[in-house]
Task: inverse folding
């Protein structure tokens, strides 16, 4: 488990299903993630995919728990998305962050993502990482820039453009 000032980051657990479903079925939250709400079965598949990623890669998305409330308020971490976007993108760990509506605007995404990146570097060594962000997702761009990500191209993904960003340690 990773602790920050306001959050705990831990591996996802079976009890996280309802919170993941609530977050991933909120159209305001998923509008930049393909724009489609997940039903409960798809949320279950999301949870099992995250858990399986940890088993296969030794890293993945953390469940983000707010210390004050004890509520699961997001998913943050690094993973291998196998997206097929380009060799420059697909050959690096991909960072991602998603927060429930009640957790947005508090700085939690940056706090959690910075902690996840520090953990990843300690566990797997400093290395280049990537992320994709929809051009209109300004809040996510702010987080990415605080983490040191810089744009290196744009591609179409899931019926819309996304900006590819990279973070080169050093």
Result:
């Amino acid at each position: 488990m990773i602790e920050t000032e306001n959050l705990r980051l831990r591996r996802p657990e079976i009890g996280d299903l309802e919170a993941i479903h609530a977050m991933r079925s909120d159209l305001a939250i998923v509008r930049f993630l393909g724009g489609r709400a997940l039903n409960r079965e798809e949320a279950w598949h999301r949870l099992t995919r995250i858990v399986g990623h940890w088993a296969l890669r030794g890293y993945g998305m953390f469940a983000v728990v707010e210390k004050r409330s004890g509520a699961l308020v997001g998913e943050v971490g690094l993973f291998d998305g196998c997206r097929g976007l380009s060799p420059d993108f697909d050959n690096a760990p991909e960072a991602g962050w998603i927060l429930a509506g009640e957790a947005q605007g508090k700085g939690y995404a940056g706090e959690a993502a910075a902690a996840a990146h520090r953990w990843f570097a300690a566990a797997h060594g400093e290395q280049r990482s990537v992320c994709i962000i929809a051009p209109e997702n300004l809040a996510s761009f702010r987080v990415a820039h605080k983490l040191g990500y810089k744009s290196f191209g744009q591609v179409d993904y899931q019926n819309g453009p996304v900006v590819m960003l990279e973070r080169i340690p050093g």
